Prior knowledge:
This protein has 192 residues and is an alpha/beta fold. The chain is 40% helix and 25% strand.
Amino acid sequence: MGKLKDIDIREALISELLSRHFNDQDTKIVNEMGVLHGQSRVDVAVINGILHGYEIKSESDTLIRLPSQIQDYSQVFDRMTIVVQRNYLDQVRSIIPKWWGIILVTRYAGDIKLREVRKGRINNSVNPYSLSHLLWRNEALEILKEKGLQKGYLSKPRHDLYKKICSSITLEEIKLIVNQRLKLRENWKVHS
């Protein structure tokens, strides 16, 4: 049997996540979600009150981008889990933050198995400005309008809108708003 590829693991992970959140209308599963305007793309994101990212590292991948991905994801996600094969397990443990979870991928009799090796914890260092980057410009403007904060901002670039949101709204409220907006998006790389 050849090496497992990202797509093989992704299919198994999404299948597992779909069965875990079956009939949960409050959950959206998104493929290849960009963060920081596409600076990084998390393989799978689960949005359901918290933002949980899943980064896949198959034996066909390298870990070269992992340090910059860690930096980007740690600014945005409430939880992160790395999905990794045994060849990278020890190396990944020494690189990722302690709050990240680890799922080990194995293949047995042709089936791909996923086993939680380390349960992740909540990230206490989400950056409100980075988190607000998940909003599209029109969504950010709608939020300012809803809060009565749009005066002088209607034609401003999106980074000014994000700054205004962050200076006017608490992190907890920004998390809630971003979560709601992401779940409301239609036809957006979603699995159902």
